[in-house]
Amino acid sequence: MTNKALIIGSSGVVGSALAERLLEQGWNVSGVSRGRTATVPGVTQISADLTSRDALDAALAGVDPTHVFITAWSRQANEEENIKVNGAMVANVLAAIGPAGTVRHAALVTGLKHYLGPFDAYGKGAVPVTPFREEQGRQDVPNFYYEQEDRLFDAAKQFGFTWSVHRPHTIIGYAVGNAMNMGQTLAVYASLCKHTGQPFVFPGSRAQWEGVTDLTDARVLARHLQWASTNDAGKNEDFNVVNGDIIRWQWLWPKLADYFGVEAAPLPAAISPLEDRMAVAPRLWREIAQQHGLAEADVTKLASWWHTDADLGRPMEVITDMTKSRKAGFLDYQGTPDAFFDLFERLKREKLIPG
């Protein structure tokens, strides 16, 4: 039987990597997005408003997926609205496709804010002891990830499919117009430094600079999603998903600087967020795009200063345990420096950063 995937957020950093993976594996793939950016060739594209049940019912009529992958979220003004909107999106999708009875498995991608708390209270509560483990459960704070999970669990019971929840750390991958993309953000930042002759200054905290951490290649996450959705060991389970190595930014930062031919500055005495320093980035990026014939002159389509600041500005250690996945049979590994360099090479090929 041919597997038929429906990817919610198919043009995003996770959805794109997943679509590429599943197409390579012979799946039929449909994708739902807002239609603002291009999707992977071979994906049957569906444009729909995830917040509207009626719109989704109409858009997904006749779509009969065997597997559903929810990789999208919508950033709101506060966590109360995040809970309301993002929980409804999950419920709407599953209510639209569940009654047909074709769905065998639904996977939800969340992240380490499950342990750290939402943006409104990021790392301010009683953060669990690291490495984060799935058994540590939920924090006693409102969190839209928990609402999404609950809507997934409810639908699984109602419609009789299995589920999995996937919690990556910061994702390194390719996508244009994505709101959470550190790899592309750092590539754009380094390119701006090279254009202006400025040093490559780490924008985060001393704790992140000196401590150990891990990250998630979108390709590893894509393989993890496929594995959990097609193996008994992945059914009705929550999993952390990271590359398998650990890094210190004070070790990796000069390597990234060397790749772009810029100076790696020492850690500044005070934290130096990108969002505070990038007011001139739109004008400068237009200059760079014209000079190098780039395919995208709007820097906001490539970089997300606020999200990279949030990740690199954390005042505590953030590292993830993968034992649960390893014991269940998922053994894939990806070196983190190569995850960055592979992405940078692709960005050059796609004419999104200077070659």
Q: How would you characterize the overall build of this protein?
A:
Helices cover 41% and strands 12% of the residues. The chain is of the alpha/beta class and 355 residues long. The protein has 2 domains: 4-168; 172-214 and 246-319 and 334-350, no CATH class. It has a 7-stranded parallel β-sheet, with helices on both faces. It has a two-stranded parallel sheet with strand order 7-9. Helix 1 (13-24) links the parallel strand 1 and strand 2 (28-33). The mean pLDDT is 95. This is NAD dependent epimerase/dehydratase. It comes from Pseudoduganella plicata.
Largest sheet: 7 strands, parallel
Please provide the count of β strands.
11
Number of domains: 2
Strands in their spatial order, largest beta sheet: 3-2-1-4-5-6-10
- What is the beta-strand fraction? 5-15%
